[in-house]
Design brief:
The protein is of the alpha/beta class and 572 residues long. It is built from 20 helices and 13 strands. It has a domain at 9-308: Amidase signature (AS) enzymes. It has an 11-stranded mixed beta sheet, with helices on both faces. It has a two-stranded antiparallel ribbon with strand order 4-5.
Length: 572
């Protein structure tokens, strides 16, 4: 069913939402009373969403990816059983939380049956991801399915193009690779208009909130992925990150993520905003409830040699030796084994906007746990992130919003209010300014690298392995109060690899104002005044661990060690 051409953008949005909802099987449709009940809940994850599932479905979605795959291989579950459980959970999640753009349940069921037949016939799996349901951020093209990226004008088109040779016929390379490994693609998740926002809201479906605490945002731009994974409607999701877009939703929703260096994984045939801006380009990233799932998907995708099909991808297979050598520096409980403890930097604040109380406590929790476990933690005082944020943001706006406005003009939809200030149409940056900013970014990256190298001159002679820092100066943000994105943007400017791990939850009793705090500036004051202990109570608190370029294996292994140490210590 195609949406009629002569409609207002509002009518097109309503029709698209209805078309998507119609793809949910009738037996999975929630009653109005259930949906109203969901709107009243503070927390949707856990008992609320599980009440709509039967015992087998609950058992399946509670499994993390690696043990779930083992159960599929052994025949304990069929791929079809697993696909049904995740499709149903995603359907309920969407009705309660508004986190999907595209529903691909029918195709997913067919795919699962084919995988079951393959396993039965060949006595082996199709690949390491055989039968694993994987959700996709709505930037990735799947044959037969829209990619709207939140734009009304992209409905029933190929990124706004009506060429019948392209519409619903293109498949992103990362999707092809996942399918070749045995994955089941079953839905695409919500994003903010333009992708350039740390929350998830667009004119198509409205807003996606945080399922752990619906008073707060799920983050963005891979916000639907963060929400769906938090609700366990996905075991593993694929997102992208140009300014924090897989790290922010992971931290806000209490899950794990890895942001690789750009072009470690293929972006070929994926939709994007400002695709010609490649100086500070977006990275493919991954989100999951399980840290082990992140290693599995990265190593599996790289085993397909993506550089042979995408010349932009670096020729760098998964380096298991780097994983093993890093993990060998800690015991299975995360403690130092005494031979070569981790040496981590701790970035308490960027000196521009200080973290709110839950983040401060989360950082202290990580540092105290690691020191007690025998690892080294040293203060981190790099070049100011304000420079990195200024340069990075200038590149995101360099085209004068022409690309964003072009997509809006297809349907006539307006900018969402959150973007009006930043992306009104204006003259593009001139070439000389562009080149000057490029040099400023280079100089910043070099200065940061020099500072990192200088840590080898410490008394212990050991260079810092990775840096612990906030993802944002707050836990999952109150909608409309995300004032400072430098903690993630600086990492994108340098194209470093990073991982996010959950640490604790905000606690209104423990996370109180410091009455002696003096705001550093107006933005810091706004961020401090935005903190409400009652609203934030129970919100996930995560941190990011940052390593250098193309150190995905190392940063994943360090995240594994830190996460294990936290679980061993059982912090609040």
């Amino acid at each position: 069913m195609q949406i009629p051409l002569h409609q207002t953008w509002q009518e097109k949005a309503v029709a698209k939402v209805a078309k998507t909802r119609a793809k949910i099987p009738q037996e999975w449709i929630l009653s109005k009373a259930d949906i109203d009940d969901a709107r009243q809940q503070r927390q949707l994850s856990g008992p609320f969403i599980e009440r709509f599932l039967d015992s087998e479905e609950r058992e399946i979605i509670r499994h993390d990816s690696v043990p779930l795959l083992s159960k599929i291989r052994s025949g304990h579950y069929t791929a079809l059983q697993v696909a049904k459980a995740y499709c149903k959970t995603a359907a309920i999640a969407h009705q309660a939380n508004n986190c999907l753009h595209e529903i691909i349940f029918h195709q997913a069921m067919q795919r699962a049956m084919e995988l079951d037949d393959y396993l039965k016939k060949n006595k082996t799996t199709m690949g390491p991801l055989h039968g694993l349901p994987i959700s996709l951020k709505d930037q990735f093209h799947v044959k037969g399915v829209d990619t709207t990226m939140g734009y009304i004008g992209w409905i029933d088109t190929y990124e706004g193009d009506t060429d019948p040779n392209k519409v619903h016929k293109v498949e992103s390379q990362i999707v092809t690779e996942l399918l070749s490994l045995g994955a089941v693609i079953y839905c695409k998740t919500s994003v903010p208009q333009s992708l350039l926002l740390g929350e998830t809201v667009n004119n198509l479906i409205g807003r996606t909130l945080n399922p752990v605490n619906q008073l707060l945002s799920c983050g963005g731009s891979s916000g639907g992925e963060g929400a769906l994974n938090s609700l366990r409607g996905s075991s593993l999701g694929v997102g992208t990150d140009i300014g924090g877009s897989v790290r922010i939703p992971a931290a806000f929703c209490g899950i794990y993520s890895v942001k690789p260096t750009h072009n470690r994984f293929s972006y070929r045939d994926a939709a994007n905003t400002n695709p010609g801006q490649t100086t500070y380009a977006s990275s493919i990233g991954f989100l999951s409830n399980s840290i082990d799932a992140l290693e599995l998907v990265m190593s599996s995708v790289l085993s397909t040699q993506p550089w042979l099909r995408d010349p932009e991808v670096v020729t760098m297979p998964w380096r298991q030796d780097l994983v093993d050598s890093t993990l060998s520096r800690a015991s299975p409980e995360g403690s130092s084994n005494g031979n070569s403890p981790l040496k981590l930097g701790i970035y308490w604040t960027d000196g521009v906007v200080g973290p709110q109380p839950p983040i401060i406590r989360g950082l202290h929790t990580v540092v105290d746990t690691l020191r007690k476990a025998g690892h080294k933690v040293v203060d981190w005082n790099p070049p100011s992130q304000s420079t990195a944020k200024r340069v990075h943001l200038a590149f995101l706006k360099a085209d004068g919003a022409h690309d964003i406005q072009k997509q809006l003009n297809i349907s006539g939809e307006p900018l969402i209010p959150q973007l009006v200030k930043s992306f009104q149409l204006r003259n593009p940056m001139n070439l000389l300014e562009y080149q000057d900013l490029t040099l400023q970014g280079r100089d910043y990256s070099e200065a940061y690298s020099d500072y990192w190298n200088s840590t080898a001159n410490d008394e212990d002679g050991q260079i810092v392995d990775a840096v612990i820092m906030p993802v944002a100066p707050h836990a999952a943000v109150i909608p409309g109060k995300y004032y400072h994105t430098a903690y993630t943007e600086a990492i994108n400017l340098m194209d470093y690899s990073a991982a996010v791990i959950p640490v604790t939850r905000a606690n209104k009793t423990l996370d109180t104002f410091n009455s002696e705090y003096k705001p550093l500036n107006d933005v810091d004051r706004k961020n401090w005044e935005a903190y409400d202990a009652d609203v934030y109570d129970g919100a996930p608190v995560g941190v990011q661990l940052v390593a250098r370029k193309y150190e995905e294996e190392k940063v994943w292994a360090i995240a594994k060690i830190v996460s294990t140490a936290l679980k061993t210590a059982r912090p609040l």
